[in-house]
Amino acid sequence: FCGAGTLCIEAAALARRLPPGRLRTFAFMRSPGFDLTVWERVKAAAMAAAEAHSPVPIIGTDRDAGAIQAAADNARRAGVAVEWRQAPLGRSPGVRQPPAGQGLWVSNPPYGIRVGDAAKLRHLYQRIGALKRTMPAGWRLALVVASPGLARATAVPLESVVMTDHGGTKVRLMVEPISASIEAET
């Protein structure tokens, strides 16, 4: 469910310690007291502190080839490297065989408001939970959801960490606590 690739692209930028807003113009830049020389110096210092490459793999998957192409184009424009794979959820190598060690599987699956019927999506969320339980200990799940009920269908302990508005829909980021991941190891 990588869609346009936003979550993977932001993760890749964070992993490299790239400064936010590095690719855009801000309204304050048109103010009379704005000093372009100072701004360029601050921006150059922030870019100099960035890592050349991500220290961790960032893998984005989607079953749709068009989504993968759009995500890859967006990552290129953002100046970050993401490994893109076209695969359905059940055969996604990043989910079926995640890299060793600790990791975070982040997904923005359909939530039955704009795309899909919430009642029919219960099976999808159950599948996400079943796949999560096959992952090695140390891997956690994070979902962007509009319905905590669908998140509960995963049967993975998830906590709401932030609520926001996404195109007029209230959504939550729900994350498996670290303590749940540690308990899975014992």
What oligomeric state do the depicted chains represent? single chain
Going by helix content, strand content and strand pairing, the class is alpha/beta
**Topology as H/E string?**
HHEHEHEHEHEEH
Mean pLDDT: 88
Specify the biggest β-sheet.
4 strands, mixed
What report would you give on this structure?
With 186 residues, the protein is an alpha/beta fold. It has helices at residues 6-15, 36-48, 65-78, 93-96, 118-134, 148-152, 178-185, and strands spanning 59-62, 83-86, 103-107, 139-145, 159-166, 169-175. The strands form 2 sheets. Strands 3-4-6-5 form a 4-stranded mixed β-sheet. Strands 1-2 form a two-stranded parallel sheet. Helix 1 packs parallel to helix 3.
Q: Descriptors for this entry?
A:
single chain, 186 residues, alpha/beta, two-stranded parallel ribbon, 7 helices
Summed up:
The protein is α/β, with parallel strands linked by helices. The chain has 7 helices and 6 strands.
Task: Map the helices and strands.
Layout: H1 6-15, H2 36-48, E1 59-62, H3 65-78, E2 83-86, H4 93-96, E3 103-107, H5 118-134, E4 139-145, H6 148-152, E5 159-166, E6 169-175, H7 178-185
Parallel strand pairs: 1-2, 3-4
Antiparallel strand pairs: 4-6, 5-6
Helix pairs in contact: 1-3
